[in-house]
Amino acid sequence: MKKQVFLFLVLLVLAPMAKAQLLEADLTDSAFASVLTCGPGEEFYTSFGHSAIRVCDSTLGLDLVYNYGTFDFDKPHFYWSFACGRLDYCLSRTTYESFLFEYAYEGRAVWEQKLRISKQELNNLFVLLETNYLPQYRYYSYDFFRDNCATRVRDMVVNCLDHRRLSPETVTDTNLSYRDIVYKNTEESLLWWRLGVDIALGQRCDHRCSNYEYMFSPIEMMHLLDTMKVDNTQQPVVDPSQQVLAETRMPLARSISPTLLFWVLFFVVLLLTLFEWSKNWRLNWLDAIIYSVTFLVSVLVVFLWFFTEHYCTKPNFNILWASPLFLYFAIAQRRSKQWMICLQMVMLLAAMVMTIGPLPQQLNAAILPISLILVCRLLSNLRHRVR
Q1: pLDDT confidence of residue 9
Q2: Which of 115, 217, 238, 348 counts the most CB atoms within 10 A of its CB?
Q3: Residue 121 domain-assigned?
Q4: What is the C-alpha separation between 175 and 171, in angstroms, rounded?
């Protein structure tokens, strides 16, 4: 028992010393650092790729990868914290061999770009990363667009430069928005996820990005780093990207377009409505389903807008079609007040216009047939109300 206590005390003393030695280590001339970019995976949250930093010094026997995209599934209230935008991500550290093994297992591609930085800047980067890895600093509040695994890598590279800066940021010719870049990184097999993202994310997603802001996307950052230069020398900041791991995963099957499916549903609802008018049917069950589902979507929109800390979910003009008024329509149905029906139809018209001309917010193309379905049923309610 005394030996165990003694060993524990020794480890307690030596552990901080070992960390301090690593933190203060002076990398040798054989050392280098690189940005690792990983291709998309099969899950939606991996479809945008991933970024990390590698620091290698063969003389010291170091080959480490620093990963800012780690989170703990076992954290209490994990899903609630994620939904509210209060989930902390953290910096993890692993060996380069283990990092490659994980991505080879998932069949995802990996590219490497060696940084063209001085020995002093390399040591700066290493100290910054090791300091960030200390328990009191490794956690951060994740933001999909402004503070994620890619932007953290970008900032580490910028901050390690010794009295140098990257070329001044400029707005690209394409002038893409955050939403446009999400679309570029969403495969055709993930069209339903794209619809969900468009419903959840608000007007801030349509902000036009500068080169610097493009770097929230790992793949975009890799392409931009290949072209960026240091301002005083106009020398590239990285060597050209080299693929170190080929993609072996099977491509995902193409999904049915939600826009096409909702157009089909619109024509079905239109036919049912015409039959209702000609045969004097009562389709209260249909209205109850359509209005209730729309109201549930409105609850999601309102929750993400007003009750979470997500930057990108506010304001959200999906509220025009996914309106809380549909709870009232689901309950009142043919007894719904005429002015409320007219108000909601004006809101639906505005939503349809925004699917064509994306101002002030770009709405998903599937919202057009969804809005027409709702207009069709509200017209039916209005017709019976007038009669």
Answers
A1: 38
A2: 217
A3: yes
A4: 6
Q: Of residues 28 and 24, which shows the higher confidence score?
A: 28
Rounded-to-integer distance, Cα 138 and Cα 195, Å: 34
Q: Are residues 268 and 375 in the same domain?
A: yes
Q: Is the pLDDT of residue 47 over 90?
A: no
Question: Tokens in use for 165?
Answer: 């800066």
Do residues 237 and 263 share a domain?
no
Triad 121, 122, 127: Cα angle to 5°: 95
Residues 240 and 147 grouped into a single domain: yes
pLDDT of 46:
81
Calculate the average pLDDT of the chain: 86
Structural domains counted in the chain: 2
The CATH number of the domain holding residue 58 is 3.90.1720
**321 and 382 share one domain:** yes
**What's the pLDDT tens digit per position in 342-377?**
999 999 999 999 998 877 899 999 999 999 999 999
- Is 6 inside a domain boundary? no
Burial class (CB in 10 A: 0-12, 13-18, 19+), 44: middle
Q: Are residues 240 and 277 in the same domain?
A: no
Q: Per the domain annotation, does 14 fall within a domain?
A: no
User: What mean pLDDT is predicted for residues 56-70?
Assistant: 95
* φ, ψ dihedrals at 305, nearest 5°: -75, -50
User: Can you give the pLDDT at residue 232?
Assistant: 66
CA distance 349 to 296: 20
Distance separating alpha carbons of residues 297 and 160, to the nearest angstrom: 45
Asked if 241 and 264 sit in the same domain, the reply is no
Q: How many beta carbons lie within 10 A of that of residue 113, not counting itself?
A: 23
Contacts of 354 (CB under 8 A, 6+ apart): 317, 320, 360, 361, 362, 363, 367
Which domain, by its residues, includes 117? 28-170+212-245
CA distance 284 to 261: 23
Reference 163, options 226, 99, 248, 230; nearest CA is 230
- Select from 386, 88, 36 the least CA-distant residue to 238: 36
Q: Are residues 301 and 360 in the same domain?
A: yes
Exposure of 334 by Cβ count < 10 A (0-12 exposed, 13-18 middle, 19+ buried)? middle
Name the token pair of 120: 């002093």
